[in-house]
Amino acid sequence: MALLEVFRDHGARDDRQKARLMWLVEAMGVDAFRSAIEQRMGQTLRREVHVAYDDVWERRDVLGIHSQKQPGLFWAGATVPAGRMLASDFYALADVADKYGDGTLRLTVEENVIIPNIPEDRLAALQAEPIFQRFPIHGGPLLRGLVSCTGAQFCSLALIETKNRALEVVRQLEAELDIPKLVRIHWTGCPNSCGQAQVGDIGLMGAPAKLDGKAVEGVKIFLGGKIGENPDLAKEFEKGIPADPAILVPRLRDLLISEFGATPRAAPAASPATPAGASA
To answer: Which of left, alpha, beta for 174 (phi over 0: left; psi -120 to 50: alpha)?
Structure first.
């Protein structure tokens, strides 16, 4: 309640572009913001000391099929591409949870879904359900790590369309590259950062850009966000990049190769030509 009161009294609530808690913290500074909350609460908040560890515990990838600590039970983590679900998808997932699990579902902060408590003898049948053609259990290394805000299709604050473009870009990149590990690409349509671009391995934030001298939808590229132990915010790497996949895909391809160990896929072998006069 104290935090809400501080935001009520000091936040820029008359400006939709600045009506976010993060802007108030930036304007006041962390120490002054903390002091204002303490004054409202009438007590001192505990100061946490960040501890850095040499032996870092890698954050788990919860998508795919995993055994639970309960003997004989598994969970299935399914990718929801760009976090977009329809009402019919909710019904389909609920039916799957009832049929193969215990009727419960869990949603992740990366916009994906987990079906827990699946007996081992039901795993094969579960993976054959039609819903998992759209929401793959074993998605690619970019699709699994993809996060996107609503974007300009449904949000008036967004500077660019995000979800459809994010899917197009990821599918092109996965078709062109072998990527050895999950790479988290976060898209956000504006500086409010609902898509949390600053915590992605690669962050893309809607921003102005020019192409052939004309204003077009563009992005800022952020690089190096980390979550889990020893977290860090991504740093702005490049700006003014047109969001057109014809331009953005090659730029991201170069980054995935130079920073994340990706390698170009070999072009498919051409089919041998049919000799003249031979029947096809």
So the answer is: alpha
Given a contact cutoff of 8 angstroms between Cβ atoms, the answer to whether 217 and 210 are in contact is: no
Does 3.40.50.720 match the CATH number of domain 64-134? no
Q: Which of 277, 214, 205, 184 is nearest to 248 (CA)?
A: 205
- Classify 147-260 by CATH class: alpha beta
CATH 3.30.413.10 domain locations along the chain: 147-260
3-state helix, strand, coil in the chain (%, to 5): 30, 20, 45
The whole-model pTM stands at 0.81
Domain with CATH 3.30.70.3340 in the chain: 64-134
Instruction: Say yes or no to pLDDT of 93 above 90.
Output: yes
Give the confidence band of 280 by pLDDT, cuts at 50, 70, 90.
very low
What are 188's two structure tokens?
Answer: 């956000």
CA dist., res. 138 & res. 155, Å (int): 30
Where do the DSSP E strands lie in the chain? 64-67, 73-78, 106-107, 113-119, 147-148, 177-178, 185-188, 202-211, 214-223, 235-242, 263-264
